[in-house]
Amino acid sequence: MPLLKVDDLSVTFTQRGKADVRAVDGVSFSVSEGEVVGLVGESGCGKSVTSLALMGLLADRGVKVGGSVNFDGIELLNLHKNAMRDMRGQELAMIFQDPLSSLNPVVPIGVQVTEILQRHRKMRGEAARKEAADLLDRVGIPDPTRRLKEYPHQLSGGMRQRALIAMAVACAPRLLIADEPTTALDVTIQAQILELLKELVDTQGTALLMITHDLGVVAGLCDEINVLYGGRVVESAARRNLFAAPTHPYSVGLLGSIPRLDAPRGEPLKPVRGSVNDNIAWSDGCAFAPRCDYYTMECLQGPPELVESYTGHKYRCVNPITEHTAPAVIDTEAS
Amino acid sequence: MSTKTDKIDRLAELTAKRGGRDGHGASLWREAFGRLRRSPMAMAGTVIVGAFVIIAIIGPWIAPYDPTAQAWGNEVFPNRNMFVGPRGENWFGLDHLGRDQFSRMVIGARQSLLVGVVATLLGFAAGAILGGIAGAAAGLGKSWGRRIDTILMRFTDMMLAIPALLLAVSVAALMGQSLATVMIAVGVAQVPIFARLLRGSMLAQAHSDYVLAAKATGIKRKRIVLAHILPNSVGPVLVQATLTLATAIIEAAALSYLGLGSPDQSIPEWGTMLADAQRFLSGAPQLAIYPAIAIIITALGFTLLGEAMRESLDPKLRK
């Protein structure tokens, strides 16, 4: 039984005088202990909203959350606010995109780490400080006792993200949600941070939900990948299957848009046409159809179902790409 | 070999110097202070405020005469518009009762500073409590929190709708004449400004990423407000306090001028001096000009300092 089982999750933003916006629309996936699951898609596809919904961090007003989020037998969506607060940081923790703005600028790193230890592990004074230094050490921050006294702006970008990871893993949570943890970092630091996350998963058996738009990140890290489009999962497969045989035209487009070093010089990049604003409503047909190179009239007949192939590869497309002319294999064993 | 060790020593020296300037343990405030030190506006403000504070503190020792002594009463004839102007023994001349104007000015500085500081602290404390509660309730509370916020803010809006001086006059008239009245009246007039400001900056902070990140680690609401939101919100309020000092000094003077100041005639006060001088404006304008200039310069000093602080703390104005 998986640790986290998300079933038919939907998030609707309501605003008086305006049409409801359904940001997440029936998303289902699951994460097991020691497993890394990726949630991939471009901006506005609902990945961050999904993560906030799992953490119970969406606003009280103007948001309707439906479906089920089952965490080790506990239904998170029905949980009382205070019980949910106790879960956060202790059972499930989150790493945010921008490490600078996610740290309080006027509070030293040490205080921000120890307050979590105080809150969940009831540690006080010297013991808490020592544990905080240990945590910073464990995430690879050199000279941790000195760093504890420093403010976020004195740390480099990579160090800040490490500090945030230290805070997230302070109570050894069983599920870690990483919302674009490497987007604000440069490439060499990205690799280090991903390595660190991978190590946490391998040594502690933490379940990791990786939210990203960067296929390079999922290629090196994720076991299962869910591609999101317009608030729905459009393709879901094991990493190897997805990269070897992307089936949904959107996944193909995403993979094809990655710049390649071995491409002939001067060859233009291949973007996915249009933008996320060109969607049509799922109830009318496939939301991706206006941007799709392969769409037929059949795509506009109604919402396509999620189809599962015999390999467990799921895709939501009536006109899937089966034989692969698409550019596929990027090195899946990277990092 | 020696050149090599020299090189290493030099390098260590340089890195040490650099480390010192980057300042391990330096905070946001220290950085802001560094910018402040380079600002000519802040320097001017600091010099004026510093001079004012020093005079206020050591006033009794540098004043050449007793401010209430009418030692030269026989030299002054207000009825015939005969006043003694500046001269060697009385630098600023004599007032209508034959008192040394310079001594009165120097002693009066202390009164202005006292009223200004106490009134500002009063306004700051009351405003910060009001605004802090409203900001915390609005930023993190549920529907009842928003209701508390609405009630408090409409209350401060009501106070803001009345001009500050009018509000101060009303309070002073209501409570009778005393030094405490002046302080309270001037302080009360500043409450809504502080309340609004703190609430606004707390609300802005409540939506920031680090608050979301703190929530994501399960930190309780009370701690988020006190340990995360509040320390990030006090910057503008502190700046406002400096600016308010200027207003408070002017308003205290205005209250004294209107006859609502301290009734104690033994302590000179710039506003009272101005009011007294009004009757002799045609014959002896210098009696009004000295206290007026003193009020303007101190107010200017605090304003310059406050503005410079605001600029150094405001990331959008940084160059």
Description:
- With 335 residues, chain A is an alpha/beta fold.
- Chain A has an eight-stranded mixed sheet, with helices on both faces. A four-stranded antiparallel sheet of chain A has the order 2-1-4-5, covered by helices on one side.
- In chain A, 30% of the residues lie in helices and 21% in strands.
- The longest helix of chain A is centred in the middle third of the chain and has 18 residues, at 187-204.
- Chain A starts with a strand and ends in a 20-residue tail after the last strand.
- Chain A is globular and about 70 Å long.
- Chain A is built from ten helices and twelve strands.
- By secondary structure, chain B is mostly helical.
- In chain B, 74% of the residues lie in helices and 0% in strands.
- In chain B, α8 runs antiparallel to α9 (221-257) and α9 (221-257) runs parallel beside α10 (270-278).
- Chain B starts with a helix and ends in a 6-residue tail after the last helix.
- The relative contact order of chain B is 0.14.
- At the A-B interface, α2, α3 and α6 of A face α8 and α9 of B.
Rg of chain A is: 21 Å
Poorly predicted ranges of chain A (pLDDT <50, ≥5 residues)? 324-335
The total beta strand count of chain A reads 12
Biggest sheet of chain A: strands, sense, closure? Answer: 8 strands, mixed
Helix content of chain A: 25-40%
Helix content of chain B: over 70%
Shape of chain B: flat
